[in-house]
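Anyone up for a design puzzle?
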């Protein structure tokens, strides 16, 4: 998709969603992916302010599918954001699903969403919710969902309160990894948020002062010590590890240390969660949304559901798969989709740890 055509599609999406909001009645519900990060949080908060601003008689409630992550909790508290959860006295008349690409990411809310018309505002690669959506504002080339909500705000003429503007800056900073993934449009939007009263410095401070807990340090060190290394043909490196928690931190270290693709496998109750990361250089050489495609392939093949972005994705599969079967499926993906042969470099201990 060229940038020109995606701008046009987004304008159309903005217009349709604003028309919908202007005609809303009853109770609008907003939901987003489980363990919501600041991008999901800010998108929801921005959208909620917009709906309330345009339709004072509409009730807006948040339906978090499984709560917020640590960074989001900090943003909510520091900016004093109002998260109005459900009173359950009335049914939702319309749903807005933000920053989410599969029904699985909505956990229990997925069943409810099925029965009610919904709009999708999202930027993930391969979105499975679009098929049944009433309306959508969707652009996988947009680095954050918050930017799509900012576009709605800019287009609507409504000016949200300062704390919401600042929250949207945190959403953008978070998903662009402090502008490393920014496009020129990202800067336009952050500039608009600042001109309207958003506090960039505060947003930045809120996200950067991260303390690493002892359990996270141990998880990272364990994850690294168990890692198995594989060659993808001759030039690329695949790293696989098995951890109990803090997958993203372990994977970040692996990619920073030179892995082109890194996978963390974690047993969760009756499920296995596979989290994937791919380096920028590998994605551009492959010309494919590698992490998202791999996770969606694993989901389809092993009976789960997965998705995400080209550089970061996840999939949940049933717990009855052994590490060896999983590795075989991973090998098939690289061979079939990318024409890359997976061969061991140093297999590490991840397989024993995963049993
Ligand atoms: Mn996002």
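Challenge accepted. My sequence:
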């Amino acid at each position: 998709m060229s940038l020109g055509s995606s701008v046009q599609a987004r304008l159309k999406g903005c217009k349709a969603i604003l028309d919908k909001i202007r005609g809303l009645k009853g109770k609008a519900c907003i939901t987003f992916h489980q363990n919501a990060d600041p991008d999901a949080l800010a998108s929801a908060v921005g959208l909620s302010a917009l709906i309330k601003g345009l339709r004072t008689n509409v009730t807006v409630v948040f339906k978090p599918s499984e709560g917020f992550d640590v960074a989001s909790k900090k943003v909510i508290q520091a900016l004093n954001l109002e998260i109005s959860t459900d009173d359950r006295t009335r049914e939702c008349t319309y749903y807005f699903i933000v920053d989410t690409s599969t029904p699985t990411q909505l956990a229990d809310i997925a069943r409810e969403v099925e029965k009610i018309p919904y709009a999708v505002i999202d930027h993930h690669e391969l979105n499975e919710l679009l098929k049944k959506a009433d309306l959508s504002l969707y652009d996988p080339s947009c680095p954050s969902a918050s930017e799509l909500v900012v576009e709605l705000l800019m287009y609507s003429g409504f000016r949200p309160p300062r704390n919401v503007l600042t929250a949207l800056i945190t959403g953008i900073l978070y998903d662009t990894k402090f502008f490393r993934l920014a496009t020129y449009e990202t800067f336009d939007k952050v500039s608009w948020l600042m001109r309207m009263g958003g506090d960039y410095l505060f947003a930045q401070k809120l996200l950067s002062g991260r303390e690493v807990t002892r359990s996270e340090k141990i998880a990272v060190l364990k994850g690294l010590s168990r890692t198995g290394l594989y060659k993808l043909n001759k030039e690329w490196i695949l790293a696989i590890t098995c951890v109990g928690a803090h997958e993203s931190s372990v994977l970040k270290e692996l990619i920073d240390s030179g892995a082109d693709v890194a996978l963390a496998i974690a047993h969760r109750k009756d499920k296995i969660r596979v989290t994937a990361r791919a380096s920028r250089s590998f994605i551009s050489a492959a010309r494919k949304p590698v992490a998202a495609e791999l996770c969606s392939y694993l989901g389809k093949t092993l009976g789960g559901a997965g998705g995400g972005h080209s550089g970061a994705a996840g999939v949940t599969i049933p717990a009855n798969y052994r590490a060896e079967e999983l590795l075989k499926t991973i090998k098939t993906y690289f061979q079939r989709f990318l024409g890359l042969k997976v061969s061991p470099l140093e297999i590490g201990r991840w397989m024993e740890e995963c049993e």
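A detail worth pointing out: The chain has two domains: 3-208, 214-354.
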